Amino acid sequence: MKMNTLQDYIDRLNQLNFKEMYQNDFFLTWEKTDDELEAVWLVADALRFMRENNISTKVFESGLGISLFRDNSTRTRFSFASACNLLGLEVQDLDEGKSQIAHGETVRETANMISFMADVIGIRDDMYIGKGNAYMHEVADSVEQGNKDGILEQRPTLVNLQCDIDHPTQCMADMLHIIHEFGGVENLKGKKLAMSWAYSPSYGKPLSVPQGVIGLMTRMGMDVVLAHPEGYDVMPEVEEVARKNAEKSGGTFTKTNSMEEAFKDADIVYPKSWAPFAAMEERTELYGNGDFDGIDRLEKELLAQNAKHKDWACTEELMKTTKDGKALYLHCLPADITGLSCEEGEVDESVFDRYRNPLYKEASYKPYVIAAMIFLSKFEDPQAILKKLEENKKPRIFK
Amino acid sequence: MKMNTLQDYIDRLNQLNFKEMYQNDFFLTWEKTDDELEAVWLVADALRFMRENNISTKVFESGLGISLFRDNSTRTRFSFASACNLLGLEVQDLDEGKSQIAHGETVRETANMISFMADVIGIRDDMYIGKGNAYMHEVADSVEQGNKDGILEQRPTLVNLQCDIDHPTQCMADMLHIIHEFGGVENLKGKKLAMSWAYSPSYGKPLSVPQGVIGLMTRMGMDVVLAHPEGYDVMPEVEEVARKNAEKSGGTFTKTNSMEEAFKDADIVYPKSWAPFAAMEERTELYGNGDFDGIDRLEKELLAQNAKHKDWACTEELMKTTKDGKALYLHCLPADITGLSCEEGEVDESVFDRYRNPLYKEASYKPYVIAAMIFLSKFEDPQAILKKLEENKKPRIFK
Amino acid sequence: MKMNTLQDYIDRLNQLNFKEMYQNDFFLTWEKTDDELEAVWLVADALRFMRENNISTKVFESGLGISLFRDNSTRTRFSFASACNLLGLEVQDLDEGKSQIAHGETVRETANMISFMADVIGIRDDMYIGKGNAYMHEVADSVEQGNKDGILEQRPTLVNLQCDIDHPTQCMADMLHIIHEFGGVENLKGKKLAMSWAYSPSYGKPLSVPQGVIGLMTRMGMDVVLAHPEGYDVMPEVEEVARKNAEKSGGTFTKTNSMEEAFKDADIVYPKSWAPFAAMEERTELYGNGDFDGIDRLEKELLAQNAKHKDWACTEELMKTTKDGKALYLHCLPADITGLSCEEGEVDESVFDRYRNPLYKEASYKPYVIAAMIFLSKFEDPQAILKKLEENKKPRIFK
Which residue of C has its CA nearest to B88? Predict the structure, then answer.
């Protein structure tokens, strides 16, 4: 996908249909067409190309990018901030600690109050099943309405920075990394990808990554295997999405309770811990009822359940069984590294170390993917804008 | 006030005298002349006009807007951030948690230390009677002196984002909303406005809004009625200001202990909870003495006192008694909505819902009002600047 | 050093060799050549000259300045934010509270994750002996490697905002203040500077200021005296640096346990509290072992030890003994002022008040010093950039 001139990216974009992305939001990858996803990757690469050639991509003279994080975050926070900054938007955090939301303010009201000069809203809300994505839609509907009613002079578009269902900015970055590593989408047909559960001493990690991965990677004609111990299922709706994707793309989607089977001859492996879907549903209910004793009990149960599966780890032995013993190892980071960040974790230190550079490159696509999502939602004719930016030749760093 | 071309705003500005605003601060509306207030509204509308027509109003290539919030805030925080961003200033929060102010640093020192590259300082300090406004003056005097002494290369101007006496950015936005709703200042003569206390389950809400409202709205020749239960008086000095304003403007300022009387045939109603002035004075003293038991006792007393006045609510029945049953309903938000945000509150849900759009529009003027205050304090000839910005035709969003 | 035209600064820069600063970091002043330090002062003054003449110095269209503060800070935080803003970089705080660093993430990984679009990283980490500076080097090495490995498109440079060894941005600002007060470096030969310990009711103040002062001021041919009660020694390595500097510069570096002796006929005095080096080493070890009882015990010991030296204060009497009774009084602020911020402290209120303006001017150089460090690390030919900026004549404030 790496091209030699900006025009190459523009030429390819001209062959795609993504007009629905204009003034639209990005919630789930499977709500987007193949053309739309490719447009995101193309624009992401084009923006990176321009930055690396010191061409300014600042398209906003002023404007805010609102970020709302319900959960701690370094990577996603900095990726969003970097994406906004790259385009000229200033990030303003909606810190619910500082704000009055807690005091019975309705979502609709808050959404409008923070959006008078907002061009984009990025939300991370992945803690509770059935809540995060729904909340994002509430916010998006509110500002859409606010714009229609003449309250908001512009319509801020929403970027899902991780919800209970999908983690699109992560998985789109993962996929762009894969595309670059394999030299193009066309080379992915028939490749085997193992999305596997792995042991971590912590508990309650979101399901959005494994779900996002099977919901996206199954669209490339790959053989996607979802592996986890019994009881660690993900949302059935997303498995259904994966199945349909595989059919349509000429690939396959299979499940197994054996990490070994998943890794066998795999071209790509994604070993990562997550919590059982059923348990996360239970936790959501317990929180709803304010039953904190119940939550403590649940946590103990889950940790005990986890402890039974310490053998689910990405070891050197397992890696040897992958394609030529050198499958591409993926992770959204941070990983639980055996002997480094914990006693027993998701991956051997020696394996992780061997893949540090690819892993960091994988992460480096996220700011560009977010910027591309914003870019495509803000301009009706992105190709023309890219062209003009190149012609302007305004340097990012003065020279 | 809505005009068809930027030149219309400029032409009107040319008829006004507001030269005192240059390099000056904005503390209280009644410290400003009628011309100066109109200039704020004109520039606010002009900046909005330009933004809506995608003309950049970025007048600062660099510079900081310092914000200091002694109290939680979503709206005001985002309004100030939006205003700064609209003009090209980057917001830097002075979070007293993070800072060393707590450690016995003098106001003068801090004010200078944060202002080396500050063009504006916005402060919200409304908690204690006799403190907030005084503190803002200390800060403004400090940086004025710092600039004279050659410590500060520029003189940051201060915008009062809410003090113990007035909430000028809120009330100026409220007024701009009224002006637009009634089609111009000239149509306000003889209109009846009811600033009324209303019941809220919470306690200790600032007096700055009712005080700001009677201190400003009495200047338009309106019949302004201040209604509250016995014992819920506001600062006598501000009532005096309102009286003088009314005389001068040919309107009236009256007081009543009956919400019904205030609402009767009112064209505009502003039902809102606040704490008794005397009680707030007592609280300030108790804090001064670190008497926290006393504060708890006072809070209990006030809540009990409040509970006696649950009948002070903006109900459908009351709204029916207003002019043609459809007075313009105002609130600074968030409102305590009966049945939504609380069991019994300031306003019926059905009333509030009917006015959601106007209420959000009312709020939407605040960022522009703040930006106008900054703009007028920074440019000796704002009309020329507006003209040049239009001629530059630099788009806010690249095209 | 104040010059009449920007060309004067450029002409002087042309006579210096500072090419090693390009793409390099700023850790300790004694790791830099005399030319490199002078270049920082010249560019700082040049940037100030341009700002005061309303010439924009915005050299970045986009880009982040990452700040990481392990300790509270008002001044340094605002100085860094001001410096970044002056050059066009947006500050993004890496708040370890909000971030996942605490959760076993390696420095190398975090450094890369936050740096995809970072042009500069500013770190304050002064709490523990042997840790802060080492941590900064880890971060700098990580991003240097990340850039080499193609993970980071640019190489963010690091600015030491205070570590356990030195406080270069503070001391470089102090020195620039001295240079301006004495009318040039050439006038400093033979001047006497007293870096003296002074009593403060607080405990455990960093050693980085006294160490930074003796490590830098000894390079100007001055007679630098380090005075402190027995047991309040600073790092021996830094004393060694000071000794060598003095030899080389033709000045002297002496030590005394008498504040009176240090102040006698001094041209410049810097009375300030700090903790004994040995005690800080012990504290670091206690923290390492999580021995919090030990830390409490140590604190009590140190406070008791401090209390024995309340006579170490910058009084009017002492000031009278300095050169003509009016030595230049320096402090990094905030000072512990007897009778104002504490009962007994570092300095008499009357002395401090007399020097308020010079002290605030001293502080005002810090943002420019930081901006100069960034500027010199980012441009291979800073003189050409300064020249072009002047030719562009883009105003900082629109006109």
Answer: C397
Number of domains chain A is built from? 2
Residues B59 and B96 in one domain: yes
Asked whether residue A102 carries a pLDDT value surpassing 70, the answer given is: no
Residues of A in contact with B77 (CB under 8 A): 98-99
Assess contact for A367 and A79: CB atoms under 8 A. Answer: yes
Q: Cβ atoms within 10 A of the Cβ of B183, count?
A: 11
DSSP for residue A335: -
A397 in any annotated domain = no
Domain with A340, as residue range(s), is: 169-362
* Same structural domain, B215 and B251: yes
By the 8 A CB rule, do C310 and C234 touch?
Answer: no
Percent of chain B at pLDDT > 70 equals 97
- Tokens 């010059």, residue located: C3
pLDDT beyond 50 at B104 = no
Looking at the structure, tell me whether residues A14 and A77 fall in a common domain.
yes
The pLDDT tens digits of the residues spanning A248-303 come to: 999 999 999 999 999 999 999 999 999 999 999 999 899 888 899 999 999 999 99
Amino acid at A60: F
Would you state the pLDDT for residue A96?
67
- Chain B residues 24-53 within an 8 A CB cutoff of chain A: 48, 51-52
Residue whose entry in the numeric block shows the structure tokens 């015990």: C297
The alpha carbon of residue A62 is apart from the nearest alpha carbon of chain B, in Å, by 6
How much is the average pLDDT of B275-295? 90
Note whether B10 and B37 are same-domain residues.
Answer: yes
How many angstroms separate the CA atoms of C266 and C328, rounded? 9
What is the share, in percent, of chain B residues with pLDDT greater than 90? 87
Tell if the CB–CB gap between A367 and C117 is shorter than 8 Å. Answer: yes
ipTM confidence score: 0.94
Q: What is the pLDDT of residues B126-146, one digit of tens each?
A: 888 888 999 999 999 999 999
Q: How does residue C100 score in pLDDT terms, banded at 50, 70 and 90?
A: very low
CB C220 within 8 A of CB C37: no
Question: Which residue of C56, C86, C364 is in closest CB contact with B151?
Answer: C364
Considering the domain architecture, whether residues B339 and B356 belong to the same structural domain is answered as yes
The span from the CA of C274 to the CA of C203, in Å, is 8
- The whole-angstrom separation of Cα B10 and Cα B383 is 5
Interface touch B104/C341, C-beta < 8 Å: yes
A positions 347-376 inside 8 Å of C (CB)? 356-357, 360-361, 363-364, 367
Q: What is the CA radius of gyration of chain B?
A: 21
Asked if A154 and A189 sit in the same domain, the reply is no
The verdict on residue B161 lying in a domain is: yes
Distance, in Å, from the CA atom of B357 to the CA atom of A320, rounded to the nearest integer, reads: 63
Is residue A377 situated within a structural domain? yes
Rounded-to-integer distance, Cα C158 and Cα C173, Å? 18
pLDDT tens digits along B79-102: 999 999 999 999 999 876 555 444
Beta strands at C252-256 and C223-227: parallel, antiparallel or unpaired: parallel
Q: Residue A72's pLDDT is what?
A: 72
What's the rounded Cα separation, in Å, for the pair B381 and B334?
37
Helix, coil or strand: residue B186: helix
CA distance B123 to C393: 33
pLDDT (mean) for A174-185: 97
A&C contacts, CB < 8 Å: 108
Same domain assignment for residues A326 and A379:
no
- Residue C49 sits in a domain of what CATH number? 3.40.50.1370
Q: Which residues of A touch C104 (CB under 8 A)?
A: 334, 336, 340-342
Cβ–Cβ below 8 Å for B48 and A153: yes
Q: Of C61, C150, C388, which is closest to A394 when you measure between CB atoms? A: C61
Residue C125 located in a structural domain: yes
Chain A residues with CB under 8 Å of C151 CB are 357, 360-361, 364
